[in-house]
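Incident review: delayed structure delivery

Summary: a single-chain prediction request sat in the queue longer than the usual turnaround. Root cause was a stuck worker, restarted by the on-call engineer. No data loss occurred. The affected request and its eventual output are reproduced below so the record is complete for anyone auditing the incident later.

Affected input:
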Amino acid sequence: MGSSSFPNRVAGGAALADALAGYARRPDVIVLGLVRGGMPVAATVATRLGLALDALVIRKLGVPWAPEVAFGALGPGGVLVRNDDVASRLDQRDIDGVLTRESAELARREAHYRGGRPPLALHGKVAVLVDDGLATGASARAAVAVARALDAARVVVAVPVGSGRALAALEPLVDELVCPLRPPGFGAVSEFYDDFHQVTDGEVAEALDSAHVRPPGTV
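Output delivered after worker restart:
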């Protein structure tokens, strides 16, 4: 691996596992992979450190004519995080349309990935929120809001690579922020992976199965 990129998401997860070694084998810690790109990273962390793993569905709310630009993010339980710099320039009808569509997709994915298991139970837990990178930070902020709403005792965000601006905005919101690679010139997360293919639903299910997911709330 070069100093400026990771071969793939598993390598990114390995780097995070090294940085998070102090949490290894703790029964009060649960690793939550942000679906979908964060799951291979999170599964690697959980497997290497002997930790429980689960999925956290966060949907980025993209501007209709420029989907890569987020005006916010949506999480389970109706948690909504807005990026007012962008949202304030949009028509409410456009916002409502995206919210309706993404709420339905979030519900579909939640049902699919939970596979009949109960909703996330984070009370008293250390929630380690893992994604493959941090660009705008909207998804991570929504994930933090979900973890706080579920009464996690401690919230840690861990990403292999992130933009300085997004990291600075996120740091005051979390108990710990882990990011091994903080390049001065940041364009997109994909620039820092040799293999950055779109993660499929099947890969998410496989990652959860391979890490022997324990039901939330158990140790």
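Verification: The CA atoms of residues 136 and 166 lie 5 Å apart.
Action items: add queue-age alerting; document worker restart procedure.
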